[in-house]
Structures are given as structure tokens and as C-alpha cells.
Design a protein that fits this description.
Blueprint lengths: L7 E4 L6 E2 L5 E8 L5 E6 L6 E2 L5 E6 L5 E6 L3 E6 L6 E2 L8 E5 L5 E8 L2 E8 L5 E7 L10 E5 L6 E4 L18
Antiparallel strand pairs: 1-3, 2-3, 3-4, 4-5, 6-7, 7-8, 8-9, 10-11, 11-12, 12-13, 14-15
């Protein structure tokens, strides 16, 4: 697969695809010769992918109108990046450990999954002021590992999906081994 500057060499499947609202194109992360991983726009029309964000910027959430994406540069600063090019707008109130998972219905706030210690919370972050308001605690059903990852959330924070890790182990007790102390 080729793009404007070269050939895609490696895909980054961990980030998953981010569909644009038109359902005709999506964002994904990959790298091409001479570049660090970056975000590409791919249309379903079969055309070549187009790099839309600078190197090392991960698109985390596509805006409701599909013209911008909330992204994080490296593991530090959040910004609202125009997908047509140009400088990002700062996103105050977001931290490097936040995971952007949804938008408010009017597009004025980003909903993030914020993990502190062993608790995950859905937090509404106002894009203009950076004010944070906890919407709800997210607790897994049953005896699951509390390190869960929220994937999708509705604008009111009432419905969401998450993934988690279930760790199982078996302890074997061996007796009668000669030389064991």
C-alpha cells in the first residue's frame, strides 16, 4: 500500500481503526520509511492512504463532524488536530494518562477514561476551560482484574463497553522432593 511520501511498512494494530462519521473512511496508525508511527486516513474507495497527523501523534478520537481528531503527541500533550492539515488547538484539562473514549452530544467536551490507582472513572472534560467532572466510576462485573480499558461510551456516560484481563493461575504443591527444604 502506498501513500504520498512512501510505502507503509508496518501497521500498529493495538490502536484500532477510528471510523469517521461518514462511515466511508477511517484513521489508523502505521509507519513508512523515514517516519515514526503516525496516523493515516484511508477511504473505502480504494485510494491510497494519506498521512494526516505529524509523526508520533496518535489520533485517539474523531470529532463528531469528522474534521478533527483529538490526539496526543508522544505521551505528553493533547491537541485537537485538523485532519485536512494545520496546527492543532490545545486541549486543556487532559492528562497523559487519560484515554479519550467519547464526545458530549454537543461536541463541547471529551469524555475520558481516567485510571487512578485501581479505579477507572469516566470524566467529562470541557474543551474550552479544561474543567473536569466525574460522570461515573467504572467497575467490572464480577471478580475481574480491575485494570479495564473503556472502549466506547455514550454522550451521557450511561452506556459503555470495556475490555479487561482475566488472570488465572494454578498453584501446584509438590511434596516429597528429595533435597527440598
Amino acid at each position: 500500500m502506498s501513500c504520498h511520501a512512501g510505502t507503509i511498512e508496518a501497521y500498529t494494530p493495538d490502536d484500532g481503526a477510528k471510523w469517521l462519521p461518514d462511515n466511508k473512511s477511517f484513521l489508523y496508525r502505521a509507519s513508512e520509511a523515514g517516519h515514526r508511527p503516525r496516523t493515516y486516513l484511508q477511504g473505502l474507495d480504494g485510494g491510497p492512504p494519506r498521512a494526516v497527523l505529524p509523526d508520533d501523534v496518535r489520533a485517539m478520537l474523531v470529532s463528531l463532524d469528522g474534521r478533527t481528531a483529538a490526539g496526543i503527541a508522544g505521551a505528553k500533550a493533547w491537541g485537537l488536530y485538523p485532519l485536512s492539515g494545520g496546527a492543532p488547538s490545545p486541549l486543556p484539562g487532559l492528562t497523559p494518562t487519560d484515554d479519550a473514549v467519547g464526545w458530549s452530544s454537543d461536541g463541547s467536551a471529551i469524555i475520558v477514561a481516567s485510571r487512578t490507582n485501581r479505579l477507572t472513572q469516566l470524566v467529562r472534560v470541557d474543551m474550552r476551560t479544561g474543567a473536569r467532572r466525574v460522570m461515573r466510576d467504572v467497575k467490572p462485573a464480577g471478580p475481574l482484574d480491575p485494570r479495564l480499558v473503556v472502549r466506547n461510551v455514550t454522550a451521557d456516560g450511561e452506556q459503555f463497553t470495556y475490555g479487561t484481563i482475566i488472570r488465572r493461575s494454578v498453584l501446584y504443591v509438590v511434596t516429597g522432593v528429595q533435597g527440598a527444604r
